[in-house]
Amino acid sequence: MRALQFFVECVLIATIVGMGVSIGVALIERVTRRWTDRFAPSRRSDLFFVAALLPAMCAIAVTTAAAGPSLLALFDLHHDHCGTHLHHAHLCLLHDFDIPALRIGLGVAALTVLALQAIRFGVALFAQQRTLSALEALGRESGDGRFSIVRLPGEPRLCHAVGVHRRRVLLSDSLAHAISECELKAALAHEEAHHDRWDGLAALLLRTSAILSAPYVMRSVIAAHRVAIEEAADSRAARIVGSPRLVAEAILAVARVQVLRPDLLQHGITSGDIERRVTRLLDGADDRPSVGLFGVASVCLFASMFILLGAHPIHHAVESLLHLI
Q1: Does residue 152 have a pLDDT over 80?
Q2: Which of 30, 60, 62, 132 gives 20 to 30 Å between its CA and that of 182?
Q3: C-beta of residue 41 within 8 angstroms of C-beta of residue 197
Q4: Inter-axis angle of helices 311-323 and 2-31, nearest 10
C-alpha cells in the first residue's frame, strides 16, 4: 500500500512540475515570438526543440531527485533521514504515514490525465503507422539515393519523409509525373534534408514528451518547431540544388497538384505555412548550421544531471510543497 501511495505522490509531483513548466514555456514562446522569428531556421528549430522538451525534462528530473533519497535508503545506499523532519509531509517509501485524502485524490486525478494523454498519443501513432503501412504495401521500394524511395501508384499525390529507424521517402508516381524533373529533384532534396536532420525522431520525441505537459498547452511550441524545421529543410535543399528559387517553385508546384495534404506525422514539402516559406526562400535562404538533434539532446541530458546533483534540496523543497496540499 505504501508503494502505491509513493507512486501516486511521484505522479502528482511530475504532473505539477510538467504542467507548470509547460504553461510557462508556452507563455514565453508567445511573448518572444517576434524576437525568435529573427533567428535562422536551424537555430529556431534547436531552440523550440529544447523548449518543447523542457516540461518533460524538468518533471522527470525533479521527480527523480525528490524520490531519490528514499529509493537509495531502501537499498541502504543513503541514510534514513525521515525522523529528522516529522513536522511536515515527506516523500518516503520506507515508512507508513497518513496521507491527506486531498493529496491522494489529486494524485489519482494526475495519473488519470497522464494516462489519457498517453492513450491518445498511442492511438494517434498507431493510426498513422497503419496508414503508412497500407500505403507502403501498395508501392515498390528503390534505393538509388542515400535514402530509399517508396514509389506509390495513383492517388493521393505524396512526397513525404517518413520513418525514424528505417528512413525513407514516400513518392507518388502521379506527383512525379505532374511536376518537372528539376522540381522533383528539389522536392526530394527537401525530404532528404529532413532525414539528414533527424526531424522525424525529433517530432516523435516532442509528441511523446507532451504527455507530461498541460493538455493542449504545448501545441503552439510544437507548431513553431515544425515551422522551423520545414524552413531549415528548405534552406538545406536550396544549398543541395544550388537555387532557393527552384525549391520555392517545387513547393508551389507540389501544392498546386496535390488535392489533399495528408498529415502522416512525418514531414512533406507542402507542410506548414507555404506562403511564409516561399517568401523566405525568395528573400534568400539562411543555411546556418545548427547544433543538431543529438547535440541538443546532449545539452538537455547535462542540464538534467545538474538538477539531479541538487537532489537533497530539491527533495526537501518538494516535501514542503506537498505539505501545503
Answers
A1: yes
A2: 132
A3: no
A4: 100
Q: Which residue has the cell 525529433?
A: 202
Cell 525549391, residue? 247
Closest CA to 173 of 197, 156, 191: 156
H or E stretch covering 190: helix 181-196
Cα–Cα distance for residue pair 283/138, rounded to 1 Å: 40
Average pLDDT over residues 196-211: 88
Using CA atoms, how far residue 192 sits from 8, 93, 95, 152, 283, in Å, is 44, 50, 56, 18, 23
CA dist 181 → 84, 177, 239 (Å):
75, 9, 17
Highest-confidence segment of 132-136, 224-228, 293-297: 224-228
Q: Identify the burial level of 174 via C-beta atoms within 10 angstroms of its C-beta, where 0-12 means exposed, 13-18 middle and 19 or more buried.
A: middle
- The pLDDT mean for the chain works out to 80
Three cell numbers, residue 56: 518533460
DSSP 151: E
Antiparallel, parallel or unpaired: β 140-142 and 148-152: antiparallel
Residues 123, 125: Cα–Cα separation, whole Å:
5
Task: Tell me if residue 315 falls in helix, strand or coil.
Answer: helix
> Considering all CA atoms of the chain, what is the largest pairwise distance in Å, rounded to the nearest integer?
76
54 near 153, Cβ under 8 Å? Answer: no
Phi, psi of 228 (to 5 degrees): -65, -40
Report the DSSP beta bridge partners of residue 149.
142, 169
The residue ranking higher by pLDDT, 18 or 97, is 18
Report yes or no: 281 and 244 within 8 Å, Cβ to Cβ: yes
pTM summary value: 0.81
Instruction: With a cut of 80, say whether residue 234 has pLDDT above it.
Output: yes
pLDDT digits (tens, 9 = 90+) for 254-290: 888 876 555 554 566 677 778 888 888 888 766 666 6
- Cβ neighbours around 108 below 10 Å, total: 13
